[in-house]
Amino acid sequence: MFNSIRGRLTEKRADSICLETQGVEWLLSVPARAVDEFGLIGEEVRAYTWLHHYEDGMRLYAFPRTLDRDVFLELTKVEGIGPKQALKILSGIRTEELGIALEGEDLAALERIPGVGRKTAQKMMLALKGKLVAAGSVPGSGKGKADPEFSDVVRALADMGFDRKGAEQAVREAARLLPDGPEREREVFRKALVDLSAGA
Questions:
Q1: Which candidate in 45, 78, 96, 186 could, as Cys together with 127 as Cys, close a disulfide (CB 3.0–4.6 Å)?
Q2: Which residues of 18-56 are buried (b: 16+ CB within 10 A; e: fewer)?
């Protein structure tokens, strides 16, 4: 099905955006906190998507990073959490913060997410603790691999003669520090290159 949509950002709403591509304007449901991460009106942006087909229709969800989409899908596997609730959760807490709360067994942090009570927080803890890290869905944890979104950056650095593991670490650190945006991949490459060159 759809992996991503690349198009011109035409509108931002409280919890959705509109992208125009080849004369078709797509309405995409996104986490409220991520609306501004897609860039500015009029810019060409890429949205990573997931299509929910239900009895009365369809709804297209979108995320600025594959990381966010992966965590969204993990949330939908928790008993009692559907796509709408998963989107609301990611509107109330950043993906990285969610991973930290789960690994630290911080129920209080989970309960502070709008719409998440103690029972839901406990279900999330039981179902997801360790999964986000093991899958590499939380940067700086688990397998220690760079986000797959930046695999081309790691490959380019390795082709330049840098140690691959060192390149992965540099890219992972750069991705953690740099904000999301249409130029993020280029900025991650630039910072990782500077850091690797300084340490050479």
A1: 78
A2: bbeeeeeebebbbbbebbebbbeeeeebbbbbbeeeeee
Contact 116, 81 (CB under 8 A): no
What are the φ/ψ torsions at residue 63 (nearest 5 degrees)? -145, 150
Over the stretch 13-28, which tens digit does the pLDDT of each residue have?
999 999 999 999 999 9
Please provide residue 11's backbone torsions phi and psi, each rounded to the nearest 5 degrees. Answer: -160, 145
* Alpha helices, H only, 56-104: 66-76, 83-92, 95-103
Helix (H, G, I), strand (E, B) or coil at 79: coil
> For residues 13 and 26, is the Cβ–Cβ distance under 8 A?
no
- CB-based contact 47:19 (threshold 8 Å): yes
Residue numbers of the chain with a pLDDT score lower than 70:
1, 133-149, 200
> Residue 42 is encoded by which pair of tokens?
């009029």
Contact status, residue 29 vs residue 47, Cβ threshold 8 Å: no
Query: Please, which residues bridge with residue 48 across strands?
Result: 4, 63
